[in-house]
Every structure is written in C-alpha cells, then in structure tokens.
Amino acid sequence: MTYLADLFIDGVWRPGSSGERFDVVDPSDLTVIERFAIATEADCMAAVDAAAAAQESWAATAPRERSELLRAAYEVLTDEVEVFAEVMVRENGKSWADAMAEANYAKEFFRWFAEEAVRVPGDYRLSPGGDKRIVVDRQPIGVSLLITPWNFPAAMATRKLAPALAAGCTTILKPARETPLTAAYMVEVLRRVGVPRGVVNLVTPVPTGPLVAKMIARPEVRKLSFTGSTEVGRDLLRECAETVVSASMELGGNAPVIVLPGADLELTIEGALQAKMRNGGSACTAANRFYVHDSLHDAFVERFSAALADYSVGPGLDRANRLGALVSVAERDKVADLVTTAVAEGATVVRGGTSHEGGAFYEATLLTGVAHGSSINATEIFGPVTAVVRYTDVDEAVRMANDTIYGLMAYVFGEEREALSVARRLEAGMIAVNRGVVSDPAAPFGGVKQSGLGREGSSEGILEFLEEKYIALTA
Ligand code: ADP
Fold first, then answer.
1. Minimal CA–CA distance to 201: which of 217, 213, 183?
2. Is residue 324 part of a domain?
3. Active site residue: 284, 380, 427, 464, which one?
4. Same domain for 16 and 30?
5. What is the mean pLDDT of the chain?
6. pTM of the entire predicted model
7. For 374-392, what is each residue's pLDDT tens digit?
8. Preceding peptide of 207 cis, ω within 30°
9. How far is the CA of 76 from the centre of ligand 1 (A)?
C-alpha cells in the first residue's frame, strides 16, 4: 500500500518548502512506513492564506452543496472502509476491530453533518417593546484550525472537519505527528469528491508549538478546535486570548467507573471491558478508575481477569489480535512505569503487567488494591490497564469519583434508579449508565471542569463553527 505523505495546501499536494521529512513508524514492528513532509513556517502561512482566500466563496455556497459534498465523502469512506482502517492499523498500531470501529464512527460524522448543514436554525421575532423585528442569523465563524491527536486519527478529524465544512468554514487540519497518514487519506477523499481548493488544508509543522502559535496569531484564523491533553490545551487557550479566537477544547479525562452494590455482574463485566479495552485503553473516555463495591469486588475481579485472557496482544493486521500496539514505545513505557509505580504504592498485579518486545505492546493488565489518589488513579493511563479500588460507601465512591480536575466521562453500573441518581451527582459531561460506550455522532461529546469547552457532534457541534448575527429591522 502506498500512502500520501505530503502537505495539502490550496488544493495541491506538495512537499514542504524545506524538503525535509519525518518518519511515520508502525508501532507494531517499529519499521518506518513513510516519511511525511515537514511544514515550515512558510508552509503554515501559505495554508492560512489559502484558507482565508477561500473563506468568502465557501461561505457563500448553498448549504445543500456543502451537504452533498460531505455525503459524497461519507459514501467514499463507506466503499473504502477497509483500506481506511488499514492505514490506521499501520500508523497507530490499534487492533483491526478497533480500526474498523473507528472507521465506521469517523465516516458517520460526514453523514451526520451532511444532514445538519441544511438545518441551521435562525430566529425572527418582534422586540418586547414592539419597535423592531429581531432577526438572528448564523454565519460561519471563519478560518478554522483543527488540531487532532493520534489515538483516534480519523474520528477526531472528521468530528471537526465535518461540522466546520457544513457550517461554511474553511479549514487547516493539523494532525498528530504520529498519525498523519490517516489525515492525508481523509483530506484526499475530500479533494476527490470535489471540495474546492483552499477549503481544506493539511499541515504537519515542526516544531509544532511555535508554528501552531504563529497560525493562531494570524487575524484571519477565527476558530481553534483542539483535541489533546489538558496541558497543551491550556497553552493554546492562552494563545487564543491574544487575538480572541474562539476555542473548542476536548481535553484529558480521568473517567471513573462506579460499580454499585446492586449491579448486574454480567452486564457490568461486558460494559467495563468495552469502557476499558476499546482502542486498547487509548481513549480520553476510557475507564481509568474502577470503584467496585466491596460486596461485588472479588467476583468482579475474578470474572474481569478471566475475560482479559481473551485479549491476545499483537499486530493489528492479524485480525485475531484483540489488543494492538500502543502508538509508540514511549507511550508503552509510560504505561509500564505507571504499573511499576502502582505496585510500589501497594497495588497487586492480578494479570498482565508486562511489555512485549518487538513492538509497542503491553499486555492486558489488572491491578487490585489500588488506593484512591495514588499515581495510577490520578493519571490518565491511556493503555490497557484496569486499576481497581474497593469501596464500601456509595457516597464516598461519588466523592472519590468527583475528586479530580477532569470531568469528561463517567460510568455507573447498578440498579437503574440508583445508578441514575448517582449519575446526576457525577461531575462529567458524559455519563454511561449500565453500558460501556457512549460515543455517537448524534450526541453531544464534551467535558466539564478541565476536560474541555464546547461540544462536538450532535446539533451543538455545528454551532461551534457558527456565530450569531443580529440584524434589527423596523417593526
Ligand atoms: P496527546 O497526549 O494525545 O499526544 P497532545 O496534547 O500532546 O496530546 O497532542 C495533541 C495534538 O496537539 C497533536 O496534534 C500534537 O501535535 C499537538 N500539539 C502538541 N503540542 C502542541 C503545542 N504546543 N501547540 C499546538 N499543538 C500541539
């Protein structure tokens, strides 16, 4: 398979102006798949220029036209879903099943926002004083910089590209260094279906931070949509303040799972496995802290451990492997260090706890005896490690669950009434009750506290790329 590995600026694939490239590595065997073009400052500025030049005409296209382009992209990705999934397996290391799930989820954003593009609401009303008509229109916010992480290289990009394009904004996509090939694939699909030049641009700047800052500082850039760590998100918010750029932020999480005394164990194991093991645990929504009631603790641990035995670890291209590689050896070592520290802090390894050589593999791991507030409990693990805290008092479990600066996702398993009452008390933007996965293009995705600002997907997602314009008419 050959991959596109250039920048896409003003409708043209081209190498960076320095001619330099960086390696894209397959984390399952550590071989170099491709050498991707490095974007220089001149390339980044050219991308902003192209997006700015195309903004007016793209905003003026009929919503139906934008809608049909997005729909066409959805159709292409549907036809090519396996090819698309394979690109992700290669550069991200995820399992085949995870790549297919992501490919299917990612393309749905094109379909969903194809539908939303033609449904943008406005308002028209008489003022309370009766002296004027208040017309509220919504218009595209303008050039949008979209920065995505490596863990869901396709879905995080479509979740931003689709609403931006639907709204009539032109875009500059900056994928993570680890996973630019998936982004290039998607941008090429948008080119193939006829998205006009300048409307979608792709840059991979090195060094990232300073060049992204220079793009944000350009007055033409009016929107930043970022998915990544809270640390980087804070820096970007500061940069956005300089030119008062509107920022949507999907940041880190530290999702608690509360297993209540009345939980159905079978349902809980099934949901907990999904919540933890989906995408090998590399998800900001991944279950990070398991608070299991004393009455179910031992049975939960026994059954969860037995279920983890089915997660054979190995390259994602071998479709039998349910657990792929982490994105890099550095990420794998971070996970391994967290486990080592957890053990030093008193946790017990019930299963796993080892790295595999030859690739960035880490075995499905289960730890018990983890203390609330210990390192592994307070850190986003981003790997296949389940860390269980035993509790006796539900109020205490809720307090511990909320004892974090994050508030993206939480899971509750229990008898429905009690689970719902606990869900209401949890500080999170999204709560799964008796289930392991929540993501859906039709649902608002986002966090509270330091997990983010704004929502993606749903009908809210397009509003992040629109701003109200009030026109006063005579009554
Ligand atoms: P992750 O833990 O998912 O790697 P990061 O926040 O480090 O989270 O990265 C998310 C995205 O942000 C990536 O595209 C990365 O290249 C980009 N990024 C990292 N540092 C900066 C920065 N200082 N300014 C802008 N973007 C950055």
1. 183
2. yes
3. 284
4. yes
5. 98
6. 0.98
7. 999 999 999 999 999 999 9
8. yes
9. 29
